[in-house]
Amino acid sequence: MKKRLIFTFVVLLAAVTCCMGQTVRDGSNRTIGTIESNGTVRDGMNRSIGHFGSDGTVRDGMNRSVGYIENSGTIRDGMNRTVGRVESDGTVRDGMNRTIGRVESDGTVRDGMNRTIGSARGVKRTYAAVFFFFNFFH
Length: 138
What we know:
By secondary structure, this protein is an alpha+beta fold. The chain is about 20% helix and about 40% strand. The chain has helices at about 1-20, 125-135; strands at about 20-25, 30-35, 40-45, 50, 55-60, 65-70, 75, 80-85, 90-95, 100-105, 110, 115-120.
């Protein structure tokens, strides 16, 4: 009975954690947002500020299409201009191919000078890059 109760608790905890979304923190470890499992992006005050669609579309808080993330990691703005790219190693480049940051495999986000500017553990690299480096939600 005790094992069954513990197992049930662990399963429930895993389900709740999965549905709550992933926390995005700044360099001082303060919560600055969350990205929920359904793609909803919230700011540090828990207000909905955008959405990542499963088709790659990025929408702002007014549900306007403000960009697109291609499967290749290319990030386009609402005018279909390339504004950046996330490479397979996590390097983030702007539209001029300059390195502007990096999203490490553990979710640590670094700027172009290799300084830690935040973390987005459990968040797709492209989502973390859009949240930190491209102004789609402002």
